[in-house]
TrEMBL record:
Residues 27-256 form the ABC transmembrane type-2 domain. It comes from Paracoccus salipaludis. It is a multi-pass membrane protein. This is Transport permease protein. It is found in: Cell inner membrane; Membrane. InterPro entries: ABC-2_transport_permease (IPR052522), ABC2_TM (IPR013525), ABC2_TM_bact-type (IPR047817), ABC_2_transport (IPR000412). The lineage of its organism: Bacteria, Pseudomonadati, Pseudomonadota, Alphaproteobacteria, Rhodobacterales. PANTHER family: INNER MEMBRANE TRANSPORT PERMEASE YADH, INNER MEMBRANE TRANSPORT PERMEASE YADH-RELATED. PROSITE patterns: ABC_TM2. It holds the Pfam family ABC2_membrane. GO terms for cellular component: ATP-binding cassette (ABC) transporter complex. One of its GO terms (molecular function) is ABC-type transporter activity.
Length: 261
């Protein structure tokens, strides 16, 4: 057999890994796609129907218009984190992580394959929720390109963070702890259900140190045209966080940290 030589990038291997990740979550779409949509719908029903009738405007918007983008982005980031982290920890627990480490894939190509799966799942969920919000609220995104940019950045940020969690965790209990004590609090305490301007100090200032705040705030600006922080600053913070998180994930994959004997 002749030696098969790859170019600088193993495009076929990267695309195959990405396709595997997409098929993995689509096989159980009731859990991976439908469940987050149901959770987002329940949040809207509880906060708007049960609690929102007597609420006035928030940042000059009806409460449902203010709440919708935050719910969408919160679902996107939780979905992206769950996709990459569950895939990696499942492979480690089942002992088939070798199927990912043995093929001729570099650390960057493995990272790209996992991020592609998280991005595809997040965009699917975001698209469905966005259509639902358009039907419920009655208008589309004010700045669709900015809204799309923050959704993509959110998926890449939390997809990379999910990889870090999957590398660190050695069992599902540790992965659940990271989700319950890190991802969920950061997403809930980042202006999803309220404007951070209503918070007293020092919590208002501390909120601006949370990168997820800028994701939700940027998505709200993209959909509704209002924000708590400058959009340019939000884009810069999110972009730098994406680069930092995924650079660390690349380094850990390259060194085999907690992945190889």
């Amino acid at each position: 057999m002749p030696v098969r030589r790859f170019g600088r990038v193993n495009w076929l291997g990267t695309a195959t890994l990405a396709a595997r990740e997409i098929r993995r979550f689509m096989t159980v779409w009731q859990q991976t796609v439908l469940a987050p949509l149901m959770t987002a719908g329940l949040f809207v029903v509880v906060f708007v129907v049960a609690l929102g009738r007597g609420r006035g405007e928030v940042m000059g918007l009806p409460f449902v218009e203010f709440l919708g983008p935050g719910i969408l982005m919160m679902t996107v980031i939780q979905t992206a984190f769950a996709n990459s982290s569950s895939s990696l920890i499942s492979s480690k627990m089942q002992g088939n992580i070798v199927d990912t480490l043995m093929p001729p894939l570099s650390a960057a190509e493995i990272l790209a394959g996992y991020l592609a799966g998280s991005l595809a799942r997040s965009l699917l969920v975001a698209g469905v929720i966005g259509i639902g919000l358009a039907l419920l609220v009655g208008h589309v995104a004010v700045h669709p390109l900015l809204a799309s940019a923050f959704i993509v950045l959110g998926a890449l940020m939390l997809g990379g963070l999910g990889l870090l969690g999957g590398i660190i965790a050695q069992k599902f209990d540790q992965m659940a702890a990271l989700t319950n004590f890190v991802v969920t609090p950061l997403s809930f305490l980042s202006g999803t259900f309220y404007s951070v301007q209503a918070l007293p100090e020092p919590f208002r200032t501390l909120s601006h140190w949370n990168p997820i705040f800028y994701l939700i705030d940027g998505a709200r600006y993209g959909f509704a045209g209002v924000s708590d922080a400058p959009v340019g600053r939000g884009l810069a913070v999110c972009l730098l966080t994406v680069v930092a998180v995924n650079a660390l994930a690349w380094w850990w994959l390259r060194s085999g940290f907690r992945m190889k004997a």
